[in-house]
Structure formats: structure tokens, C-alpha cells
């Protein structure tokens, strides 16, 4: 998978050089390009924003730099999906991550300020698939944190990125339920024992216990996932 990110804070994504995603980059499973939006400006101050037409507080990101940045990235690609993180987007879920993990080329556009001139979305949609994606009902100062979360959620689903693919199966939201509680050694810690069933060696009973734990936790914390 090829991932390109357009941002005014390119160093923000240095963190992608560590851990699993860093290994995925080194192994070539993920090709990453981070592009500074200001490199597509032509004035002395490398201006990327201006006041909003119609008045209002804050600044809006100018269309010209975005147009030039995306022109270059879209020209190189056969069928990119351009994703703009936005509180106005469809909510990102594990199903979204699974779908996006199938893509060959993702282009992330990190907005800042009061957002990006609408014509950028309209112009880009004439040449590529465009999605506005929200991480939930809250506002951030910019799209970078959202993109980092999405890249981690997507990247770990790419075959070969996570060492043991089995570990992806029993996680929260993978089967529509929240994950069961996990325990490791010691068997007793500060007087708290590991549930005896987990020490029984009875794999059928353990699986049934874990499923019940998932259902109980989901009912308690996220009844909406059960359609309740
Ligand atoms: C500037 O971006 C945001 O505020 C944002 C992006 C994605 N999801 C959100 N909930 C907020």
C-alpha cells in the first residue's frame, strides 16, 4: 500500500518511523510519502490560509496550494482514495479500517484552522474518490492526529504488518463485540486471582467464558453495538 499525507506539520508523522508501522515501511509493505503543503505556495510567507468569505471567526485553508499538492499525487496514481479527516465526515470504525486496508493508494489531506476551501473537495472529486472521515463527535485543531490513528488502524490490518494475524481476530469490534478481559502471570497479584477457568486447560469452556465476557461487557459499555 502507498500512503501519502499532505500537512503543514510534516514532522508530526516522524512517529510513523517507529514500532510496527516503521517495520512495515522498512519491509516495503507500506510506502509512505509526507508532503508539506507550504511547498506548494509561491509567496514569501508560504501562505496557506486566508479569511473566510461571508465573514466569521478563524481562517480557511486556501485552495491553490491544495490543488497543486493533490495534482501531483493524483497524477502519479491509477485509483487513489483521498481522505480528509473532518468532524463532518462519516465515522471511522473497524469496518472502515478493514475496507481501507484493501486500497492500493491512500492520500490523506490534513486540514487545519476552520477547514479547507470547499472547492478543493469538489475539484478533487472530479479526479478521484474522496471521503470525509470523522474519528467521532469531537473537534481537533487539525487532521494530523486523526490521520495518525487511521494509519495505525489500517496499517495493522495489512497482511504481514502484525506478526501473528491470529491476534487480530479476537479484538474489540472485530466480531462486532468488545474484547474479553485478558490476564497473564502471576496467577495471584495483590490478592487478585486470575479467573480459574483460564487455568483449567479446558479450551471449549475457556472459549465459552470469553464469549460470555464479550457479551456482558458489550451489553454494559456499548449496548448500541448489540442493536439494543
Ligand atoms: C480538524 O479535524 C477535526 O477536527 C477532526 C477530524 C476527524 N475527526 C474528528 N472528530 C475531528
TrEMBL record:
Kindly indicate whether the keyword Methyltransferase belongs to this entry: yes
The record's family statement is: Belongs to the RNA methyltransferase TrmD family.
For this UniProt record, give its keywords in alphabetical order, as a comma-separated list. Answer: Cytoplasm, Methyltransferase, S-adenosyl-L-methionine, Transferase, tRNA processing
Top-level taxon in the UniProt lineage: Bacteria
User: How is the quaternary structure described?
Assistant: Homodimer.
Tell me where in or outside the cell this protein is found: Cytoplasm
Classification via CDD domains:
TrmD-like
What organism does the UniProt record list as the source? Gryllotalpicola daejeonensis
What is this protein's name? tRNA (guanine-N(1)-)-methyltransferase
Q: Which gene encodes it?
A: trmD
Q: Show the catalytic activity.
A: guanosine(37) in tRNA + S-adenosyl-L-methionine = N(1)-methylguanosine(37) in tRNA + S-adenosyl-L-homocysteine + H(+)
- The EC number of this protein is 2.1.1.228
InterPro entries annotated for this entry?
Alpha/beta_knot_MTases (IPR029028), tRNA_m1G_MeTrfase_C_sf (IPR023148), tRNA_m1G_MeTrfase_TrmD (IPR002649), tRNA_m1G_MTases_N (IPR029026), tRNA_MeTrfase_TRMD/TRM10 (IPR016009)
